[in-house]
Design a protein that fits this description.
The protein has 275 residues and is an alpha+beta fold. It starts with a helix and ends with a helix. Among the domains are: 78 residues, Immunoglobulins (Immunoglobulin-like); 101 residues, Immunoglobulins (Immunoglobulin-like). The strands form five sheets. Strands 11, 12, 14, 15 and 16 form a five-stranded antiparallel sheet that branches. A four-stranded mixed sheet has the order 1-7-6-3, with no helix packed on it. Helix content is 28%, strand content 43%. The N terminus is likely disordered. It has two helices and 17 strands. Bound molecules: 2-acetamido-2-deoxy-beta-D-glucopyranose (5 copies). The site of one 2-acetamido-2-deoxy-beta-D-glucopyranose has 4 residues, from β13. The site of one 2-acetamido-2-deoxy-beta-D-glucopyranose (NAG) has 3 residues, from loops.
Length: 275
């Protein structure tokens, strides 16, 4: 068994070597293409010989023949909504050959939604900039940039090769400056799939305005001011009462002196008597 297995493997290995060697000209690796979900893809079916027979593109999708020459045919495959393998087949010298196109669907950024929260802030306080890019895939090629005018505030790149679309969200907290009210905030989403046989898709959100108010007095200040006002009132009242009492006291004092003088006079006469 083991011996047969070994021989089988060797035979397979030799067969692979042999066929690779003899088919070098005809053999072509699959071509990888990336297409936005629901979009069309041009496929150029080119035969390896100059006079191919039965040059066809095999696919269950709708295709249109756009152009045709002896050695090639250009097709447009419409509305590709999931990953597909397209086969281009032809007969060269009585032998059938195929060329494989592997088409991977991606979900480019179609919308870029920017939210400032709150939309009206006092200078010097924090506010949140949130940017949402709905239903994108793969996340790997995506870069989201938050901008104030043309100035870059924040950049985030993503990781993840999941083929199913998902929302990419970037949130950034920053302090409001007085001059922020004179600029537009925006968010830019860029999907770069050039390294994977795709293209470059770039989208920008609608501009958003931030209303910057003068800083509000904080509660501490309000309390301090209230306390100062109360102290001032107490002081004024005190001064007023002092005034009123001093008037009364003055009148009282004249009475007191009258009594006092009387006693002084008495004491004086007594002293005079004793002396
Ligand atoms: C298709 O490919 C062949 C071979 O590469 C090329 O000569 C031809 O110009 C291509 N056709 C179009 C329409 O691009
Ligand atoms: C192909 O196109 C026709 C007409 O444009 C349409 O009725 C049909 O549903 C399409 N087929 C596929 C598989 O998209
Ligand atoms: C594209 O394909 C999707 C899913 O296969 C289908 O629902 C839709 O009707 C197609 N659109 C066109 C214009 O053929
Ligand atoms: C921004 O601030 C909010 C509350 O003000 C907080 O919930 C959120 O986690 C902060 N986000 C970041 C990215 O720091
Ligand atoms: C901000 O955006 C609005 C609307 O697009 C535009 O009218 C305005 O000129 C922009 N302001 C600045 C300072 O770029």
């Amino acid at each position: 068994m083991a011996l047969f297995g070994g021989w089988g493997m060797l035979a397979a290995f030799l067969a692979l070597l042999c066929c690779r060697g003899s088919g070098v000209k005809a053999f072509q690796g699959p071509e990888h293409l990336m297409v936005g979900s629901g979009e069309s893809q041009f496929i150029n079916c080119t035969a390896s010989c100059t006079d191919p027979k039965k040059l066809v593109l095999e696919t269950h999708l709708n295709k249109t023949l756009l152009e045709s020459q002896a050695q090639w045919k250009l097709f447009k495959v419409a509305n590709i909504s999931k990953d597909e393998k397209l086969l281009c087949s032809f007969t060269c010298g009585g032998r059938q050959e195929t060329k494989v196109f592997i088409v991977t669907v991606f979900y480019p950024p179609k919308q870029v939604l920017l939210t400032l929260w709150p939309t009206s802030v006092a200078a010097g306080t924090l506010f949140t900039i949130e940017c949402r890019v709905p239903a994108v895939a793969p996340l790997e090629g995506l870069t989201v940039t938050l901008l104030r005018g043309t100035e870059i505030l924040y950049i985030q790149t993503f990781v993840g090769t999941a083929p199913s679309p998902q929302d990419a969200v970037v949130s950034h907290n920053t302090t409001a400056h007085r001059e922020d009210g004179h600029h537009n905030f925006s968010c830019e989403a860029q999907m770069d799939l050039r390294s994977r046989g795709g293209g470059l898709v770039h989208r920008v959100s609608d501009p958003q305005r931030l209303e910057v108010k003068e800083p509000e007095p904080n509660t501490q200040m309000v309390i301090i001011i209230a306390v100062l006002i109360v102290l001032l009132l107490v002081f004024v009242t005190f001064v007023f009462l002092c005034f009123v009492f001093s008037q009364k006291w003055h009148r009282g004092r004249t009475g007191y002196y009258a009594v006092h003088d009387h006693w002084r006079r008495l004491i004086g006469s007594h002293r005079a008597q004793t002396l």
